[in-house]
Amino acid sequence: MNPETKDFMAQTETLAVGDGWAVEALERFEGPLLAYARRFTGDLDAARDLVQDAFLKLCEQPLASDDPRLGPWLFRVCRNRAIDRLRKEGPVHLWEEPDRMPDTAFDTERDAETRDEAARLAEGLRALPPRQGEAVWLKFRGDLSYRQIAEVMDESVSNVGFLLHTAIQDLRRRLGEKHAHARTAVEEAS
Hints:
- The protein has two domains: 87 residues; 81 residues, Arc Repressor Mutant, subunit A (Orthogonal Bundle).
- Helix 2 runs parallel beside helix 4, helix 3 packs across helix 4 and helix 8 runs antiparallel to helix 9.
- The protein has nine helices and no strands.
- It is mostly helical.
- The two termini are 33 Å apart.
C-alpha cells in the first residue's frame, strides 16, 4: 500500500465513526476506482485526487460497506468529479485508454500468444467510442450490473444494454476469425 493510501486510510478511520465501514469500502473499491479515474485523467496523481474526493464524500453519507448502492455511488461520484475537473481544464478527450500493457512477464510461447491476444483486445477496446468503452470497462473491470452501470453513467438500463451489445459486436468484428481465442473470451464475457 502506498504512503498516500495509508494517510488517507488514517483520515478515513477517523471519519468512519469508529465502525470501520469506510475502511472496508476503501479496501474493496480503491483499486477499481483508481483505475476508472485514471481512464478519465490519464494521470495517476489526478486519479488519486478524484478517488480521495469520492471517499471523503462517502464519509458524509449514510451508506454502509455492505449497501448494494455503495459501488455504483462511488463510481458515479468519481465520474462526476472527473467530468467537473475536465471541464475546468478545457477540452480534452474523455475516457482515454492508457497506451501500455500490464507489467507482466510472459515466459512461454503460450504466454506470448496470450499477450498478443490481450494486446489485440486492448487495441479493439481503445477503438471503441468513449461511452461504449466506459460501459465495457464498468461491466467487465468494475463488475457492475447493467442497472448499476446505468446509475453511474446516467443512462437507461436498456441503453446500457445497447452500448454493451454494440461494443461487443464491434470487438467481435475487429478481432475476426483469425483471432479465435481472443474472440472466444469476448463471447464468453457477453
